[in-house]
Amino acid sequence: MKKYMNKSPEEVMKMVTTELITRGIKLGRKKKRTLYIHKRASDPGVSFEELNPMTQEGKERLDKFLTPIKLI
Fold first, then answer.
1. Average pLDDT per block of 10 residues along the chain, 72 residues long
2. Which terminus of the chain has a lower count of CB atoms within 10 Å, N or C?
3. What pLDDT shows up at residue 52?
4. Considering the domain boundaries, does residue 46 fall inside one?
5. Which residues pair with 47 in a beta bridge?
6. Residue 51 lies in a domain
7. 44 domain-assigned
8. Which of 17, 9, 60, 10 is nearest to 25 (CA)?
């Protein structure tokens, strides 16, 4: 928990989500499953593989995914 101290809530949320996605990718590959994450219940899911922070495309998609939703 020390690594989350003195960070803004946005930074902590990004760190935790990135850790969740990297762990999900590892475990999904091990069990031969595809995991999805949703921003809202009504949104279609995004595969963890698409948000892989280890690839350049994945980093860009993860940053886009972590931007807040603007509700009208």
1. 85 91 94 90 90 93 84 67
2. C
3. 93
4. yes
5. 36
6. yes
7. yes
8. 17
Give me the pLDDT at residue 72, please. 66
How many domains, the chain?
Answer: 1
Q: Which two tokens stand for residue 42?
A: 């009504």
Burial class of residue 48 in the structure, from the number of CB atoms within 10 Å of its CB (0-12 exposed, 13-18 middle, 19+ buried): buried
Q: Does some domain include residue 52?
A: yes
Give the residue numbers spanning the domain of 53. Answer: 34-64
pLDDT reported for residue 39: 83
Q: Which residues of 7-33 are buried (b: 16+ CB within 10 A; e: fewer)?
A: eeeeeeebeebeeebbebbeebeeeee
Contact, 48 vs 36, CB < 8 A?
yes
